[in-house]
Specification:
single chain; 318 residues; alpha/beta; Rossmann fold; 2 domains; five-stranded parallel sheet; 12 strands; 33% helix; elongated
């Protein structure tokens, strides 16, 4: 490319090995994640912008970057990127859809085991010096897990739980045949049948509060709820009421409507297992995410087709 090399602005921290690989490419790299001033100072010259979940790429931010050609999200979801605004400007958006699959699937399995064995109370009691034995929780074998959304992560969870003797059902408006042992159902039938409901759907305007008071009431009494997808899929006030009543026996949330969450009564409920959106926060997942988006940027710099473009209607600029 003639003139100065294209500027890649890294707004959020990515894996050091991925950053080093990017610096070896035919571009200038500015790590704006270490200086809050670097992003606005260099945005006007940026050819590409790399983000994780911290930086919100709004229409206003895109407007400040007239040379922007690629937005790279080092992760799966692009909720923090205004994709329509990027598309309207002719900016390609790429992500790393497979990077966190294993980490999030393993966290989901950990949640399921913890909830069904009802370990929160015994762990807290033992830590406080109370040695209380007795019947606690249940076996996982013979139970049914229901997946709301049946993509990569849900399929990995199903495969990992099958050896425990768990059967799987799923609802996904975009999947009619699972291709494995999982039975596809309507959402109403899934909620009535599953012992554990695990959410793996993308967030859209249509499914905000998909799991609301009405749908929580459809659950089997004593069912469990797991959400490792997007916080607004669940009406947290309704979930709190279902936990208080005992209709929902326990819930594990890695994501919340507001992050950090503000519904203190829900966070402090003894049947809730809350974690701070760490499903993809393993070194392995972050290295894969960083390498995936760096490889996409290097393809873009070479004028090659992209593998993980979110808005494929936007073509490469000359």
């Amino acid at each position: 490319m003639p003139g100065a090399p294209p500027l890649v602005l890294v707004a959020d921290p990515i894996d050091p090995a991925a950053l080093a690989r990017l610096r070896e490419g035919p571009c200038e790299v500015v790590d704006a994640s270490v200086s809050s001033a670097a992003l606005p100072e260099r945005l006007g010259s940026a050819w590409a912008l790399v983000v994780r979940s911290r930086t919100r790429v709004t229409a206003g931010l895109i407007a400040q970057a007239p040379k922007l050609s690629v937005i790279a999200r080092a992760g799966v979801g692009v909720d923090n990127v205004d994709v329509p605004a990027a598309t309207a400007r002719g900016v390609r958006v790429v992500n790393a859809p497979t990077a966190a699959t294993t980490s999030v699937a393993e966290l989901t399995v950990a949640f399921v085991l913890w909830l069904v064995r009802d370990l929160s109370g015994p762990v807290a009691a033992t830590r406080s010096g109370i040695w209380k034995r007795g019947l606690v929780g249940h076996e996982l074998a013979g139970r049914t897990i229901g997946f709301v959304g049946y993509g990569r992560i849900a399929r990995e969870v199903a495969a990992r739980l099958a050896p425990f003797g768990v059967s799987a059902v799923a609802f996904d408006p975009f999947v009619t045949v699972s291709g494995d042992a999982t039975e596809m159902l309507t959402l109403d039938d899934l909620l009535a049948r599953a012992d554990i409901v695990s959410l793996h759907a993308a967030l859209t305007p249509e499914n905000r509060h998909l799991i609301d008071a009405r749908r929580l009431a459809q659950l089997k009494a004593g069912a469990f709820l797991v959400n490792v997808a997007r916080g607004p899929l669940v009406d947290e006030t309704a979930l709190l009421a279902a936990l208080v009543s005992g209709h929902v026996a326990g819930a594990a949330l890695d994501v919340f409507e507001l992050e950090p969450p503000t519904l203190t009564a829900l966070l402090q409920h003894p049947k809730l297992l809350p974690t701070p959106h760490l499903g993809a926060s393993t070194p392995e997942a972050q290295q894969r995410a960083g390498m995936a988006v760096v490889d996409e940027l290097l393809r873009a710099l070479r004028g090659e087709p992209l593998k993980f473009q979110v808005n494929p209607e936007v073509r490469s600029t000359p």
